[in-house]
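From the methods appendix. Each design record in this collection lists the tokenized structure first, followed by the designed amino acid sequence. Records were kept in a plain field format so they could be parsed without special tools. The example shown here is representative of the layout used throughout.

RECORD:
FOLD TOKENS (188 positions):
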């Protein structure tokens, strides 16, 4: 699909409150992250943009903190990271998911599949979406393990000059850029 179709698709998912985890594939720079942010904002939702490739597994899982039960037995309680939501409504967006190391993708799998990680539970009002580049884009990505990939509805977005032209005009981009790409649309 093109970026215009992706925008409409995301708005429909939000409007109809469809909670299936979503993976958006496409080349770098096509606008995946911006479209997700605009769709969330347009629906009055918060967005938390988590770049998994910049985190270690404990950054998402949380930190173990020693405690004692009532009978004095030592246990570890996991304190979740502050960036995970505790209420409200929004989109938890895991950008560049497949740039994260396989160990990090494994930790994220529980959050994506079960909407929880350890003792933390994602509030009901939150959507779980992710995005990534494809191998053919020569992006530095890891293969997504099948158990993780199977948890997503996959959508692929491609560059499209007509969609870009509408966006460029709305955003007031220099007319020369649009004119140039009108002649050489394959360079978009």
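DESIGN:
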């Amino acid at each position: 699909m093109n970026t215009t179709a992706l925008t409409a698709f995301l708005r429909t998912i939000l409007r109809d409150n469809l909670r299936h985890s979503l993976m958006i594939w496409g080349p770098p720079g096509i606008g995946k992250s911006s479209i997700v942010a605009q769709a969330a904002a347009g629906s009055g939702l918060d967005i938390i943009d988590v770049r998994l490739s910049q985190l270690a597994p404990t950054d998402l899982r949380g930190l173990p903190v020693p405690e004692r039960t009532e009978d004095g037995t030592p246990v570890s309680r996991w304190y979740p990271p502050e960036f995970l939501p505790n209420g409200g409504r929004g989109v938890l967006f895991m950008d560049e998911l497949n740039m994260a190391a396989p160990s990090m993708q494994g930790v994220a799998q529980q959050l994506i599949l079960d909407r929880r990680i350890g003792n933390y539970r994602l509030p009901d009002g939150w959507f779980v979406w992710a995005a990534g580049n494809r191998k053919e884009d020569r992006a530095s990505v890891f293969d997504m393990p099948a158990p993780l990939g199977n948890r997503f509805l996959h959508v692929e977005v491609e560059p499209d000059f007509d969609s870009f032209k509408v966006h460029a005009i709305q955003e007031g981009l220099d007319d020369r850029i649009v004119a140039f790409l009108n002649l050489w649309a394959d360079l978009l």
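APPENDIX NOTE: The helical segments are 3-15, 32-42, 57-61, 102-114, 146-149, 161-171, 175-183.
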